[in-house]
Amino acid sequence: MHNPIRILAVVCAALVALISAGCGRKDAPSAAASGPALERVRLHLDWHPQTEYGGYYQALERGFYREAGLDVEIISGGPGVPFKETVALERAEIGCTDGNDVIVAISRGVPLVIVAAEMQRNPQGILFHESHPLADFRALQGRTFMAGPGSAWVEYLRRSQGIRFDLLPLTADLTSFLADETMVRQCFVTQEPFFARQKGAKVGTLLIADSGYSPYRVIYTSREYLARRPEVVRTFLAATVRGFDDLLDGDPAPAFAALQKANALMTPDVMAFSREAMKSLRLVQGDPARGERTGLITRERIARQIEILQSLGQLGKPLAVEDVAAFGLAP
Known about the structure:
The chain has 14 helices and 10 strands. By secondary structure, the chain is of the alpha/beta class. It folds into 2 domains: 39-121 and 215-324, 3-Layer(aba) Sandwich (D-Maltodextrin-Binding Protein, domain 2); 124-211, Periplasmic binding protein-like II (D-Maltodextrin-Binding Protein, domain 2), CATH 3.40.190.10. The strands form 2 sheets. A 5-stranded mixed sheet has the order 2-1-3-10-4. A 5-stranded mixed sheet has the order 7-6-8-5-9, with helices on one face. It is globular.
């Protein structure tokens, strides 16, 4: 006969083993997935997704942010979107835009701080027809110039070059420019020349940075966020610099695929043109002979932009370099 006590003991032991094994199987996935939680970072663009932002998308698609422990969300900008205010209120942790816009905002009490350069050279330029070329900025004398009203760099050109020109408000499309070969207009050298040539126009460009007016395009955050989470900002910048260098020196396919998904206007031809302009003009990586590199900001250049903006009456109050930027955060 079987011993009932022994059978009961065996059954109990088997049940304990099954329960333990079941608990082990249940806990195993949790243990594997219970690594350090990713830090959420929202990046707010100042415009719709396009190639100029490709380094962020490259870092996202190639996993550079995730490797750094970050869960990055890219938020689109556009006309009328208050992206600087959104970052100041920490509804997004990081933003990117023209460096002068951030300096002017800070002078008017918006609690932001520049932490790195998105581009060493701003892609803002002047587009002209080759039939009526601009040999230099002085050749703008007497021309009809379409540009954004109130642009500080327009007044800088007038003063620094000692020239006068007729100013028309900038339109979103190229229709007026294409219809009048004597006209010149504001452009991004990474965008409008492509679309003008696509329409059959023969065009050339001058880069505003070559006039002496050379603000960075910048990456910025709120003063409070930087004070509270400097390590997150530093980590984000390291992964972003890696993304931009990989976009320009490596295979841009991951960023291009993501950009095309985010913005149907970003066709392969447009993106290839923009990337080549970024590379050939050293917009992002700068001039190594001058000590420039991806992400770097210097006190000297920030000070120069404050000085120019002050002379043009753009600032709400005088600023010191330390009021505007935090240095040494980008690798």
